[in-house]
Amino acid sequence: MTAPLDVLVVGAGPTGLALAAQLRAHGATFRIVDRSLDRVRESRALGIQPRTLEALAGFGVTDRLVARGNPAMRLRLHLARRTVSVPLFDIGLPDTPYPFLLFLSQAETEHVLGEHLTARDVSIERGTELVGLEQRGSHVVCRLRSRDGAQDVVSARYVVGCDGAHSTVRAQAGIGFEGYAYPQTYLLADLEVEGLEPGAVHSYMTGAGMLFFFPLGSPAPWRMLAMRPSDAPDVEVTVPLLQQIAERYGADGLVLRDPVWMTDFRLHNRGAARYRSGPFFLAGDAAHIHSPAGAQGMNTGIQDALNLGWKLALVCRGAAPQELLETYGIERAPVGRHVRRFTDRAFVIGTSANPVLRFARAQLVPRLAPLAVRATAPRGRVFRTVSELGIHYRRSPASATGTRPPRRGPRAGDRLPDRPRGLQARVAAAPGWHLLLTGPPRLWPDPRLAPVLDGRADLITVHRLDDRGPWPGVAQGLVRPDGHLGYVARGAGLDGLGAYVARWLPIERTGHPG
């Protein structure tokens, strides 16, 4: 057996790849394995939210994702007698450099993240399956098997299951996966569609349900998603079947052809009973699965990974206490529960056979849709939720406010906004923590900061922002490696900041304990 790893990452989908990128950036030793021989080639998940684009910017991959994707800005809602054009993310997002929903196939997302890791000498071990876990003292003995039957035994301090809804890590750790399956069957296809206006999302709403076409680009121009009508034959998915169902939902005049991928599937709404059990952690679909409403799934998984990765790395380096790992479940489990509730409500409204909801879809939506377009405040709140920019960790033990909280601006636990414009890019330029100091530079000379930074120069980067910071007047904020504010205070006093870093970034280093 080789020397113990810090982390074994099981699963090389978007969640596992993002976790590996975070571990690599923060100096952890790890391996990433996946039982599949190759990355996905189908589109699968296809929407990247603004918050995810922000969170990945620190790895230098966001511009490449945007260049490959389609930043759709409008929803074309096809109703019985009219078509309503609804702007997507046109309001409510003034504090992000990515005010759009990016449509990009999961295959392309994995390709970009994989290239990032390969360029940093990280090998993605495909065709390697986790077959057993055994905790022995401070380490976990992991049995791996390759496709040729060869066995490998790895010792790791922590194991993270990014291995999907049927997670081996979750099963081996004895963590329950609670929830239910939806009764309907859904059809999915990536294909050519003649007759659709390009560059927009198209939705056809009827009493029977909803049909969507999403602009994809690659591996096909369009992604089709539809519920199989209850009286439709349960037969193999074919283009004629998709054409028939599209016309049944009101998509007359469209011609479907040249599919790259077609399938049918059932949806589930399930969540892990806990996100951690001793040295075992869950992220992504291993921790939560739900309907695709709102394009939340892959994004939530990536953000799980980016919340967890730096914490594991710092604890393994001895730069942070074990207590920091407890904040992962405290912070991310509520996000997972919210996403499950939110997607469930949206999904039921759009697909339920309940007579009241069928009537609402067929009769009320056509009348109310034009009014909703003009209701800017509610739309802004919805966009903020869907974009995931509103996610915060204000109740986390790792979020603290000084005795004089700022009167305005982001609070401890909030994501760092891009105000002033370009602030996020400046902070994302280097991995680690970032100390933001506003007010006259003379208030922040190096000798005053020395007690806070002593022994932590490799962990904290200082930014003196004058009056260009996110808070008015004199203030200080410590940004965590995942872009959320750990500590915020008004004034030039540093006692509170000193206490915060003493708790979460103690100077004593123990290397790789255990």
TrEMBL record:
This is FAD-dependent monooxygenase. Pfam families: FAD_binding_3 (PF01494). Residues 411-420 have a biased composition (Basic and acidic residues). The keyword Flavoprotein applies. Keywords: FAD, Flavoprotein, Monooxygenase, Oxidoreductase. The lineage of its organism: Bacteria, Bacillati, Actinomycetota, Actinomycetes, Kitasatosporales. Residues 394-420 are annotated as: Disordered. Its cofactor is FAD. InterPro entries: FAD-bd, FAD/NAD-bd_sf, RIFMO-like. GO terms for molecular function: FAD binding; oxidoreductase activity, acting on paired donors, with incorporation or reduction of molecular oxygen, NAD(P)H as one donor, and incorporation of one atom of oxygen. Residues 6-342 form the FAD-binding domain. It comes from the Bacteria. Coiled coil: none annotated. It comes from Streptomyces sp. R28.
